[in-house]
Amino acid sequence: MKNITILGATGSIGSSTLSVIAHNPQRYNVYALGAGSNHTKMLALCLQWQPQYAAMANKAAAQTLQQALRAAGCKTQVLAGEESLCHIASLPEVDMVMAAIVGAAGLLSTMAAVKAGKRLLLANKEALVMSGQLFVDAVKKYNAQLMPVDSEHNAIFQCLSPNIQTNLGHCDLQAAGVSKILLTGSGGPFRYSDIESLHSVTPEQAIAHPNWSMGPKISVDSASMMNKGLEYIEARWLFNASKEQLKVVIHPQSVIHSMVQYQDGSTLAQLGEPDMCTPISLTLAYPERVPAGVKALDFTEIGELSFIKPDFARYPCLELAIDACYSGQHATTALNAANEIAVDAFLNRRIAFTDIARVNSRVMDKVCATEQASQLDSLESLIELDRMARSLAREQLS
Ligand code: NAD
Ligand code: MG
User: Fold this and answer.
1) Could you give the 3-state DSSP secondary structure of residue 379?
2) Average pLDDT of 41-68?
3) Per the confidence metrics, is the pTM higher than 0.70?
4) Which residue, among 115, 106, 55, has the nearest Cα to 386 in the 3D structure?
5) Over the stretch 108-139, which tens digit does the pLDDT of each residue have?
6) Does ligand 1 have an atom closer than 6 angstroms to the CB of 207?
7) Which of 5, 6, 12 to probe ligand 1 with, by most ligand atoms within 8 A of CB?
8) All structural domains of the chain
9) SS3 for 393?
10) Are the CB atoms for 91 and 7 separated by under 8 Å?
11) Bridge partners, residue 79, by sequence
12) Are 54 and 77 a contacting pair, CB within 8 Å?
């Protein structure tokens, strides 16, 4: 029986994780749940799963939760504040931590799990994007076991050999015979729209992803392909990949979740339903496989698979992210922070969809012009840069 902490338990990945656990109650125990401010959802989860701890970043939400749990006679202990998320990520009784908080808000608790040497199921890609080298070095130093949850990285992981799988962040693709990693993406809801019409799309249209059901921020990122850009940076760190070893391919059907090409001319791909329960179940059970509640693909139903080269005029955020990846940590941390502010402003109807790339680009340019030489060798320095990029992004909004 493995004890699990789920950070971001009230979100989309949190709910898929609990669904996989429900299919395997003899293997996994929900030990602690963490979230931001949704106390209503957390109350329901506590009543259902009876965890030892429930931690809420928002202190008022924690208080409301505590009163409701007491009234219901539930013994779950409620903790409050960001420190409490770090606490439940590093408890000695915990074997695995699902890091599924959205955005930079998940950095400290995700790092706490790394520093406690846990098996880390990483969904919170922003944490890796904003800390890169520091993150993969900490994984090695503290002997944590890194398992990619993001469906593309999980697919790539499945197409690689065990010596790479057990050395993420520091592996040698070339020595393993790999020539290229092909990161696939659907292209989002606007892949066939007239580019001129993109400035007037609504948040509702942007979050209506054609293939996947996800939280609002990653859904907007998928529409702009900023998500693929963040995933490009994520892949660079997870697989220690060079520019020549990474390529993005648009695959509208989302049947193939990514591919690995080898020097002998072979291409390996992982295929499946667009359901996060599959990659999540692999990160929980690895190296074994367990039921995930997902049906197998029916190839005669699928028909044809197609592939398109990404067009940077349609997806400027993708190009920005690839540029940032090779500019350095200051650029990726700043881009991630700016994007969180811009996406939030778009969701709140303060800016147009096409302004997201504009804000991101201006903040990145400013930071690259001034911060190139700054030392980013601590979490504090990264958080400071994140804060500065957020305020530059807010200036752009006004
Ligand atoms: P979501 O919006 O559905 O859930 C976000 C979770 O984070 C919630 O539990 C929320 O309470 C918590 N949270 C938000 N702000 C917080 C804060 N300040 N402090 C603590 N907790 C906070 O998001 P999601 O779609 O589940 O995505 C979660 C992460 O997983 C993201 O990084 C996303 O990129 C990644 N991811 C998601 C999917 C997917 O299919 N949903 C796929 C791949 C990767
Ligand atoms: Mg993904």
Assistant:
1) helix
2) 98
3) yes
4) 106
5) 999 999 999 999 999 999 999 999 999 999 99
6) no
7) 12
8) 2-148 (3.40.50.720), 178-273+306-397 (1.10.1740.10)
9) helix
10) no
11) 55
12) yes
